[in-house]
TrEMBL record:
The keyword Transmembrane helix appears for this protein: yes
Keyword Mitochondrion recorded: no
Region of interest (Disordered), ranges: 1-44, 363-383
Protein role: HflC and HflK could encode or regulate a protease.
Protein name: Protein HflK
Xref: Pfam families: Band_7 (PF01145), HflK_N (PF12221)
Length: 383
């Protein structure tokens, strides 16, 4: 026992006899009294039983061979069990044997040889990392970004300078390669992204880079950057390249805006001219087509009339050949009818005696006023 009862029959364990008498327990309650509720365990009894069990397992104590073997076995079991580990769903387990990368484990419950033989690193492979090139965002709560001209100024394909700011988003594709193939992953991604962007901008003219070619530049940069990282065996996958800004340099941006406005005016005037041309040309073509159709119709009309007159003359000639006197008399009468139809006429009768052959002619049609004209004063309208 770790302690002995002293003081004769009045001992109370390691705490001594309780004041006022009572049983040997540390709470000062009588051991045989009634009292309500459960009684606390007897610590002395528990310790004594534990020592008895230990003596039965190791009769010679911890110094015996069996005791040493048991202790060594327990320690070995604990050491072997320390190799059990768990890889989270957003991690990859990189197992190193004496510092050398031997394998990569996927998420789940895994085992490796205990330390110091094998150790495990578990980097987060689903976390999206961001690299800023050409600018630094204000991370202290202040507004605005800080420009980095050494990274953002680039030369275009038509030998103009452009200020490009962009971001690169990437994740870990292979944790082993990420940890052991490259020394500084973030610096590597940044330098490779800047190099890829400069190459793409160097193949692109200024005007498309500022306007419609932004998406194309992002896609080409992503593909080129991924090919470079795969060649480095960096274990990194680029998910997105995002252009933040693509403008002319600050000292010349006003002059460039003037040029852009002039180009916009030129484009507007060109569009207006195109619209006018598209309006006037169809109308002119339609007018020309109408004139051509009218001329064709007139030509057909004249040809038809000429052919009709020729056919009529031919028929008259055929009739004249059959009966010349009758047809000549008829032609004379028809001709005189056409000539005298609209002229004033005086009729002279050569057989009249004493009147010099003149017959009075009363033009009744001239005495009647035109239809619809009001009658003169004192004159009645003829019935």
């Amino acid at each position: 026992m770790p302690w002995t009862n002293q003081g004769g029959g009045g001992g109370g364990g390691p705490w001594g006899p309780p004041p006022g008498g009572g049983g040997p327990n540390p709470w000062g309650r009588p051991s045989g009294g009634g009292g309500g509720g459960p009684q606390p365990p007897d610590l002395e009894e528990l310790l004594r039983r534990s020592q008895d069990r230990l003596k039965r397992v190791m009769p010679g104590g911890f110094g015996s061979g069996r005791g040493v073997a048991i202790v060594v076995g327990v320690l070995a079991a604990i050491w072997l069990a320390s190799g059990i580990y768990r890889v989270e769903p957003d991690e990859q387990g990189v197992v190193m044997r004496f510092g050398e990368w031997v394998r990569t484990e996927q998420p789940g419950l895994r085992y490796h040889l205990p330390n110091p033989i094998e150790t495990v690193l578990s980097p987060k492979v689903t976390r999206v990392n961001r690299i800023e090139v050409g600018y630094r965002s204000a991370g202290d709560g202040r507004r605005g970004d800080r420009d980095v001209p050494d990274e953002s100024l680039m030369l275009t394909g038509d030998e103009n300078i452009i200020d490009v700011d962009f971001s690169v988003f990437w994740v870990i594709k292979d944790a082993g390669e990420f940890l052991f193939k490259i020394r500084d992953p973030e610096a590597t991604v940044k330098k490779a992204a800047e190099s890829a962007m400069r190459e793409v901008i160097g193949r692109t003219d200024l005007q498309p880079a500022l306007t419609e070619a932004r998406q194309q530049i992002e896609q080409q940069t992503l593909q080129l950057l991924q090919a470079m990282l795969d060649e480095y065996q960096a274990g990194i996958e680029v998910t997105q390249v995002q252009l933040q800004k693509a403008d002319p340099p600050s000292p010349v941006i006003d002059a460039f805006n003037d040029v852009q406005r002039a180009r916009a005016d030129r484009e507007r005037l060109r569009n207006e001219a195109e619209a006018y041309r598209n309006d006037i040309i169809p109308r002119a073509r339609g007018e020309a087509e109408r004139l051509v159709q009218e001329a064709s119709a007139y030509r057909e009309q004249v040809i038809s009339l000429a052919q009709g007159d020729a056919d009529r003359f031919r028929k008259v000639y055929e009739a004249y050949s059959l009966s010349k006197d009758v047809l000549a008399q008829r032609m004379y009468l028809e001709t005189m009818e056409e000539v005298l139809q609209g002229t004033n006429k005086v009729i002279i009768d050569g057989n009249a005696q004493g009147a010099q052959g003149v017959v009075p002619y009363l033009p009744l049609n001239q005495l009647q006023p035109p239809a619809g004209s009001p009658p003169k004063p004192g004159q009645q309208r003829a019935p």
